[in-house]
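Justification of computing resources. Each target in the renewal requires a structure prediction run like the one illustrated here; the chain below, 283 residues long, is used simply to show the kind of job we budget for.
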Amino acid sequence: MGADARLNRAFLNAPMLPLSNRSRYVLMSDCHRGIGNSSDNFLKNQHLYFAALEHYYRQGFTYIELGDGDELWENRNIKNIMDIHSNVFWLFQQFYQENRLYLLYGNHDIVKRKKRLQPLLSPLCFHEGIILTTGTPPDNAPRISLYLTHGHQASLLNSTLWPLSRFLVRYVWNPLENLGVLDPTSAAKNYRIKNKCEISLNQWAEKNRRILITGHTHRPILPTDPARYYNTGSCVHPRCITCIEIERLSMTLVKWCMNARADSTLYVAREIISGPVPLQSAP
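Resulting C-alpha cells:
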C-alpha cells in the first residue's frame, strides 16, 4: 500500500465536524508527552502548552490534536505519562465535557487505535483523520473542507513498518540520543526525510484537490498565497510551541513563547507567525 492509499484510508470513515463563521478550532500536533525524564521532549515546553491550552479553553475553542500527543515509542506505559502530566489530561476532561476535544493518533502513539487502551483513557476516543467542512453552503457557494491527519502515512517506515521503527527508537536511537546522536530516520530531525515527506503530502493534496493539514515533520507551514498543504509545527521546538487557529473562516499560524516585560518579569506570549489567511475551497 502506497502513501496515497494510506492517506485515502485515513479519511475513509473520518468524523466530519462543522465549519462555519462561528467555528473556533485550534490544531496542535507532536507534543510527545513523556514520563518527565531526560528523554521527555515535552517537559521544557509544558508550561507554555498548558498556558496556551487554558487560553483556548477560556476562549471557547475546540482542541484538535493531530497525533503524537504521547511518546509511546520510547515509553511503554501511558499511565506513567498521564500521572506526570496529569494537569494536561485534567484540562482534556474539561474540553471533553463540553464536546470540544478531538484526538488523532500518529506514528509515535499509533497503539491508541487499539481498543484495549480505551478503558484506561475512557472516555477519550482516537481517530486517524478528521474532516472540517462547511457542509452544504448557501447561494451555491463552494464547500470548504479541511482534511486533518498526522502525516506519518507519507512514510513507509513510520506507517506500515512502524513496529520496526518503534524497536529502533526504543532500543537504538533513544539511548544514542542521550549521548547527542540524532535519529537519522526521523522526519523531525532529518531534513532530507522531512522534505521528502512534505513533498509526498503536498502531492496528495494537489492530486486530490483537498486542503490537507498535518503535523509529523515539526515544521510549521502556513503560506499566505493559496495553497493546499499546511502544517501545525510541534510543541517541542527549542523555545516555543506552534499551532494553527481556525476562526471566522480564516487560519492563523501562531507561536507561544516566553517574553520579558520592561521590569524583567516573564510571561507567556502569543505571537502571530503567519495569517490570518481566509479559507477557501481547494484551488
